[in-house]
Design goal:
The radius of gyration is 16 Å and the shape is globular. Strands 2-1-3-4-5 form a five-stranded antiparallel β-sheet, covered by helices on one side. The protein has three helices and five strands; from the N terminus they run E-E-H-E-E-E-H-H. It is α+β, with helices and mostly antiparallel strands. The two termini are 23 Å apart.
């Protein structure tokens, strides 16, 4: 499973962005202040709600949205949506068949744990577990 679509609006410096990768690598380039870091923050904040800066919403706007489509070969198998308001942020994780995670952050944490490597955890394990 990989990111097959990133859509965001009113996040940090971004008005709107849509990225639909066509290969295993996506180049994010631009002048200073163009929003490169904002795009990377969208990916991080979409998956992890713990380290979001105090003001993720673009100045002058009331809310911001991030949507990340996960899947393979252009077929969406899971959609992650995070909406920011002045008071809080809201997360939903759902699939095209109508499943909606009751504990969306835990669902994401479990999913990311299955497909990622924590190098510090790896180093602490004995040779057999590594």
């Amino acid at each position: 499973m990989k990111i097959i679509g990133l859509y965001a609006n009113n996040v940090k410096k971004l008005r709107a962005v849509e990225i639909r990768p066509t290969s295993n690598m996506v180049r994010i380039a631009g002048l200073n202040g163009a929003g490169k870091t904002s795009v990377l923050d969208c990916i991080k904040w979409g998956f992890e709600g713990r380290s979001i800066q105090s003001v993720p919403i673009r100045k002058g706007e009331e809310k911001a949205n991030i949507r990340i489509d996960l899947g393979a070969d252009g077929v969406v198998s899971l959609t992650v949506e995070r909406t920011f308001t002045e008071k809080d942020n809201y997360l939903t994780v759902r699939n095209p068949e109508g499943f909606a995670a009751k504990k969306p952050q835990k669902h994401l944490d479990d999913l990311i744990g299955l497909i990622s490597l924590d190098p510090l955890l790896f180093m602490r394990q004995d040779a057999k577990k590594q």
